Amino acid sequence: MGMGDYSPGSIWYYAPNKVAPIIFIVLFFISGAIHAWQTIKHKSWRTTILLPWAAALMIAGFAMRELGAYHTDNLTYLIVSTVLVMSGPPVYALINYFILSRILYYIPYLAPMHPGRVATTFVGLDAVCEILIGQGAWRMANSSMTEKQRQLGANLVTASLSLQVALFGSFGLMAAQFHRRASKSKVLSRDLRIVLYVLYVSATIVTIRCIYRLVEYIQGWDSTIYKNEIFFWIFEAVIMCLNTTLLNLFHPGKRLPRSNSVFLDRDGITERRGPGWADDRPWIFTVFDPFDVWGLIKGRDKKTQFWEMSDEELVRLRAENKANKRNVFAGAMDPFHLWGSRGYIGKHLTKKSNEAGTTTPAPAVKAETGGSTKSAKTAMETV
């Protein structure tokens, strides 16, 4: 029986292949284990910690598909497998966002936007994609639902995939803009070029997979693509396996600095340690205003250009930031950093309080020279 032949009683339409899932379970398991080992070896927690998780999602999805191949009338296996397999690629896209963010932290003066905002903006929108997929995939795969309910699921998945395509396009344009600036400034090392090229290939692979799914769900579950398993194995399993293998062969953790505070000087050779490029705004502001347009108008970004400072100034700034760093308890109680003297709301209240204190009339004091009454201000001026 071929991969597109109808199998009586199968909710998959066809009889799912029983060998292919095992092959990909093994491949993704090996890849995930190598990802974990390289992440530990290169201490690239912030950049690549999700690589093993993405592989785990694909493994779980193929495991459910293998069970479904032996129980073709079991709806649960189909639904769970669909949701898990479709959740893996967005995580790989998420990893690409973190990689670009780390590159921009390394060469901040050429960044098209704040590196932290790359993460918050794309990660936030990627989370929306995951929610839409989770809500849509199980409805679409559930053949016991009405046609209208399944169509709603397909529409949710289509909306998610469309958003993903737009995200990947924007992401690619941003990476290309930075690449052009860095090449023109001659600050790209061989390692950085490799990371950028891998980033382009990985983003292209995820986009191709996304377009395949988009066409599949637009055409519906009665289409040739949906009814032929071969399309799934080529455009979902094989290309995502190539993607995870690519990220293993050219692991970004090996070629990027471990800390966001390390940046490359304008000479393209000297590495310096800065305070890190912080964004004190609440995360919700960074999502809806990733380019900090208001900050650009007010000139706030100019105050954060630490790469123009001397080494002595950087040391002093790092010490200041360390002293003002919030502890774990404060972060848990006020995760959006709204209160306190440095909080988004608290700093304005503190400022008003200080201003109110300075406008209070000073008591009269005796001048040391003549005994006449003078204001405190005048006395201070004479000291």
From TrEMBL:
Location, primary (coarse class): membrane
Stretches for region Disordered: 354-383
GO cellular component: membrane
Residue ranges of the TM segments: 20-37, 49-65, 77-100, 152-173, 194-215, 230-250
Keyword Transmembrane recorded: yes
InterPro entries (UniProt xref): RTA1
Pfam families in alphabetical order: RTA1 (PF04479)
Topological category with respect to the lipid bilayer: Multi-pass membrane protein
Keywords: Membrane, Transmembrane, Transmembrane helix
Cellular localization per UniProt: Membrane
Protein name: RTA1 domain protein
